[in-house]
Design goal:
- α4 crosses α17 and α7 packs across α8.
- α5 links the parallel β4 and β5.
- This protein is of the alpha/beta class.
- It is 52% helix and 11% strand.
- The strands form four sheets. Strands 5-4-9-10 form a four-stranded parallel sheet, with helices on both faces. A three-stranded antiparallel sheet has the order 1-3-2. It has a three-stranded antiparallel sheet with strand order 6-7-8.
């Protein structure tokens, strides 16, 4: 159990005892899980539960606070306990408790050895979702890297994680593409890179929009594709296969975990759509509206206050996104055993997803203990404060944006390391450039928009990814220097050794908080909590190193400072790994 868990347990027990024994208020156990206590309050801060709790039980706040302090007099984790103000409890954590916590960070396979509360979930995470035969653009960046972090964190906490890449690989656009391939005499064996596929799509779109006969032919290919026609299926599979090759190049550059095995495109649910409609009809949930089959769900209205339909089957008999999304939920629950489904999708899709979730609940496909959640995110903006686009007004291609970041990082690395060869510099520039882009995105509250500023992102000062990479590399250098001086880096901290400087204590306190940042990510699906925690640790280390010599310290305190360095290095390395960011030894 982590230190702050111990403190929380002691405080809750003391409160229950004070309420029951001293204040004679019945049912004190109602406060065992009281939200008035937060782990973040327990580190040289005031425990401010007394005011609100005292009002609820009808006693003076200072009396309640005094009773709690009295019961904590023998605590081995808290010291300097006193009542202040109208009923606050001031407290500090003991040196021995903090040293034990720092030492614990050095054991096990990871310093983040903290288990999630409650039962483990089977979590399906739907993210990235590019379209076949189209370049990934900056809009795919956030979905891909936010989803990747959630996969890493939830897996680390012991949940069963199923990654799903719901690519756009079905419908009218593919009849259009197949018709163009046939028209130009291009077979499925042709080697089409993403640039060729993009050009093909643009030619097909122009042909479709400008030639009614071609458009009719394209619609015919859609029917053939859905019916399993061998030629249509072969050409479609070639388009998907060659697009997936490009997707994987982007995922490899981004260091995300998605593979071909994770792809479940729109086509994967095509055979389920008729059955979805039949089941909804049996349940009495579908209503014919203007020729379409719709669901009208409580709480969803248009601007005029009229009921808003969720169109499951269109008036022409075709299916849209709602039907496919409902089929996906049904399969994810029934066949994959999902208890939690996360959709990492932009904010504009909130209404659609809310209606789909409500429809799945009404159908009984999301029952008690099963939930679907929209992990919404904002947009990436340019210098003008508008959605980032090229000068021509098109979305910025993701591979070009990432290449620009690596190029900028390469320039910065070259200035610092003129003696490095091209291969060494290129490897570090990739780690720094990609890490800079990912961290800048993840460090923001995902619901907010943010401006894409490469100069700020690649800086080694400020709240940036390179700052964390540099801090971790500097600690590695310190430990290597200590090792070169013959210092045993694994020597235990002698009993009774405490902190000599406030910066040592401040670093230990930040390290004691960091494990719970993972729970914040898992509970709230907000990676920025981990980013901020890592930045706080790195800043505390910088102050510590400025005021607390390591290699030249006397025996005893030196072992403690070495332990602080090692714990910080492990936390930064593992934390960056959970964010999908590399940790080079030099930058």
């Amino acid at each position: 159990m982590a230190l702050l868990d111990d403190v929380e347990t002691e405080l809750r027990a003391a409160i229950a005892s004070a309420v029951t024994d001293t204040l004679t208020v019945p049912s004190a156990d109602q406060f065992d899980d009281d939200p008035l206590l937060r782990r973040s309050d327990f580190a040289d801060l005031q425990a401010n539960f007394a005011l609100a709790l005292a009002r609820r039980v009808g006693v003076p706040p200072r009396d309640l606070a005094a009773a709690v302090v009295d019961r904590l007099a023998a605590s081995t984790t808290m010291r300097d306990l006193e009542v202040s103000g109208p009923g606050f409890v001031n407290l500090s954590l003991t040196d021995s408790a903090l040293v034990t916590e720092v030492t614990a960070l050095l054991g096990g396979p990871s310093p983040f050895t903290l288990t999630a509360d409650g039962a483990r979930d089977v979590v399906v995470i739907d993210y990235s979702a590019p379209n076949v035969a189209k370049q990934m653009h900056v809009g795919h960046l956030r979905s891909t890297i936010i989803g990747d972090v959630l996969c890493r964190v939830l897996d680390h906490l012991g949940h069963t994680v199923i990654r799903r890449n719901h690519i756009g690989d079905w419908g009218t656009p593919f009849g259009m593409l197949i018709a163009q391939l046939v028209d130009e005499g291009i077979d499925g064996d042709a080697d089409l890179d993403i640039a060729a596929l993009t050009d093909l799509y643009q030619r097909a779109r122009a042909h479709f929009d400008g030639d009614a006969d071609f458009a009719e032919t394209a619609r015919g290919w859609v029917v053939k594709l859905q019916a399993g026609d061998p030629t249509a299926r072969s050409l479609w599979q070639a388009l998907v296969r060659q697009s997936a090759r490009y997707f994987n190049e982007v995922y490899d550059l981004l260091d995300v975990l998605l593979t071909d095995d994770d792809i479940r495109g729109e086509s994967a649910y095509d055979d389920d759509l008729d059955d979805v409609v039949e089941e909804l009809q049996r349940l009495g949930l579908l209503v014919e509206h203007e020729g379409a089959l719709c669901m009208f769900l409580d709480g969803f209205t248009n601007r005029d206050g009229e009921p808003l339909p969720l169109i499951v089957r269109k008036s022409d008999g075709g299916y849209g996104y709602a039907a496919t999304d409902l089929a996906a939920i049904r399969r994810r629950v029934r066949e994959e055993g999902a208890t939690r489904i996360l959709y990492v999708v932009g904010l504009p899709q909130h209404l659609h997803l809310s209606m789909v979730f409500a429809a799945a609940t009404a159908a009984g496909w999301l029952a008690e203990g099963q939930r679907a959640e929209h992990v919404a995110f904002g947009s990436v903006l340019g210098d003008d404060g508008k959605i980032l686009r090229t000068r021509a007004g098109a979305p910025v291609r993701l591979i070009e944006l990432l290449s620009s970041a690596v190029e900028r990082a390469d320039h910065e690395v070259a200035i610092r390391h003129e003696d490095w060869d091209d291969a060494q510099r290129a490897e570090i520039a990739r780690a720094v450039g990609i890490g800079a882009v990912k961290f800048a995105d993840l460090a923001n509250d995902r619901r907010n928009d943010y401006r894409f500023d490469l100069d700020r992102m690649v800086a080694t000062v400020g709240a940036t990814g390179p700052y964390l990479q540099y801090a971790r590399a500097r600690i590695s250098s310190i430990l290597n220097r200590a090792n070169d001086h013959g210092i045993d880096l694994t020597a235990a901290v002698p009993d009774g050794v405490g902190f000599e400087t406030e910066s040592e204590r401040a670093l230990a306190l930040e390290l004691s908080h960091i494990r719970h940042a993972l729970l914040d990510v898992a509970d709230n699906l907000e990676p920025h909590h981990l980013c901020r925690g890592l930045l706080d640790v790195a800043a505390a280390f910088s102050a510590f190193y400025e005021h607390s010599p390591v290699v030249k310290a006397d025996s005893g305190i030196r072992e403690l400072r070495i332990a602080l360095c090692r714990a910080t290095e492990r936390v930064l390395t593992s934390g960056l790994e959970l964010l999908g960011i590399r940790s080079p030894d030099e930058i």
